[in-house]
Specification:
This protein has 137 residues and is an alpha/beta fold. It has helices at 24-34, 48-54, 84-108, 110-114, and strands at residues 6-11, 18-19, 38-44, 56-64, 71-77, 79-80, 117-126, 129-136. The N and C termini lie far apart (30 Å).
């Protein structure tokens, strides 16, 4: 067990022209505020073509298999370097807290906590606007 609010942490190597908008120390704050402990935290770097098509900023996943406690994972995406300050502000101001709160609500709900399901929360940037989508599989 680590002192961090996650069991595992990975960080992709950055592609040329990409930066991470926040580091794990800034991610740790909302996790501690909500009391959420992640199974995994991943800083991921998409291929430039994927970024142009998807504009992914933040992805939260909840996975539960019948009879076992659910697992929460959080993925923070690298962004084109020229958008680092903008996206970092969006993450610090609102998006990290929203994603952590969403995962915390699922972790606190006994039905979601043990029912067989996978749920996703995704924030992406499209034409300068943040779009948040939730889905269940």
């Amino acid at each position: 067990m680590t002192d961090h609010p996650w069991d595992s942490y990975t960080r992709d190597r950055l592609h040329a022209g990409f930066s991470y908008p926040v580091g794990r120390s800034l991610i740790e704050g909302p996790l501690r505020t909500t009391g959420l402990h992640l199974h995994s935290l991943h800083l991921s770097c998409p291929l430039p073509r994927e970024w142009e098509q998807q504009g992914g900023l933040l992805f939260a996943r909840w996975f539960a298999a019948g009879g076992t406690p659910g697992l929460a994972s959080l993925y923070v995406g690298a962004v084109p370097s020229h958008q680092r300050a903008l996206v970092g502000g969006l993450l610090r101001d609102d998006l990290l807290e929203r994603a952590c709160g969403w995962l915390h609500r699922l972790a606190a709900d006994p039905v979601s906590g043990y029912a067989m399901s996978s749920r996703d929360w995704r924030a992406r940037l499209h034409e300068g606007e943040v779009i948040v989508q939730e889905s269940q599989h």
